[in-house]
Amino acid sequence: MTKVFWEELFPHEFKERLIERPVVYVPIGLCEPHGQISALGMDLIRARFICEQTARQSGGIVAPTVGYHVHESGNSARWLEQKVGETNACMTSIPAYVFFKYLLYQLRAFYNSGFQTAILLSGHGGSHSRDLKRVAQIFAEYVQMNVWYGVDQNELLKGSKFKGDHAGKNEISALMYARPDLVDHSLVSLEDVPGSGGKLALHPTAGEASWEHGQEAMNYEISYLGRLVDEMQPRNSGLETWNRLPLLTYEQVEQIWDRLGEEQWESLQPRPDEETTSATSRWKSSETSKFY
Ligand SMILES: [Zn+2]
User: Fold this and answer.
1) At 197, is the secondary structure helix, strand, or coil?
2) Cα three-residue angle 38-267-259, rounded to 5 degrees
3) How many angstroms does the Cα of residue 235 sit away from the middle of ligand 1?
4) 61 C-alpha to center of ligand 1: Å?
5) pTM score, two decimals?
């Protein structure tokens, strides 16, 4: 089978794929609970699956998956208090500003490796999504590269009959299709076991999930992303940037970083009109963060 993952390619294979279509896909997600019935890596596994299938059909290379993401801060703190509660969320979240800066340096690596288009596909949504689109836009303007950021269940379902959710019919179906071994509906009984964490953010529609729904929705997303790639990046266009010079320097990335410091970021605090997290909640301490 065709290899599409960066880490599996030999140098000559990387070069061939890049010249054929200089697009890098970056699956992004984090570990967090989606009920007792599904694996914690739900968001990143889905994003990786969509990137893999799109690269097989449309060309390009899939970058190593980013498994740490923004959560806990801004209105996500209140969301966690309400949906997950006062329990260990088994979650791989990092502060927004750390993610922003790490993302800039990843984009630098993609630019210096010769890519002309970066598709940042997140399986995890929230108020940080708007911030990350802005970060992508600022980087893209600075270096003249196409950078797209989107959430699979939002952007890639546009125009379809499907609607994204958290641990509901759509999301659970998608994982059932991508990795049937990572969903087990019988585990819903654990919700009643003391100390289990209870519902762990499971949506009431999760019981309606099916492999067939997942197949249809995921295939819609994959073909949507394929069309997007066709619009953003013509085929056989990578030769001119294969040995790209000059390289983007650390100093230039730090200039972009300084530029980010001038913006207002939604993910750092709740919106003024929103209810905040209870003072006694375990999620209170991360609700507001600075931009360092
Ligand atoms: Zn999710």
Assistant:
1) coil
2) 130
3) 33
4) 24
5) 0.97
